[in-house]
Description:
Elements: E1 3-5, H1 15-20, E2 25-30, H2 34-53, E3 58-65, H3 71-81, E4 86-92, H4 95-98, H5 112-120
Parallel strand pairs: 1-2, 2-3, 3-4
Amino acid sequence: MSHCRITHCHFPVGCIERTCRRAELVVVPVSPSLIEIAQLPASRALFEEARLENPALKEVYLLTQVRNSRDRVEVREALEGLGLVALDTEIPLRVAISRAFGVAPETDGPYEGVVRELLAR
């Protein structure tokens, strides 16, 4: 399974689009913030356009969480309202995660549930 983790602000223009033309699965981390919610329709449009060239492309949304925060519930509700698929597993919001570009996640710790869900798809 080819995969990609994307964060819009870290890639040159066109890089995400080119990646989506080749990937089978894109995991999109979503943090509990209003700006992330506002970007969801644009992300959805990007994936719909990419599927014109790559019908096998699937995207799932991975929620990052802040303990004792209702914000993550609101993000999940926004995803569901747009018909977007969110993984059941949520991961802690940590700076180290955003720096993990190109690194395969470990199969234990906070990513254990994420890996299990992805492998079950």
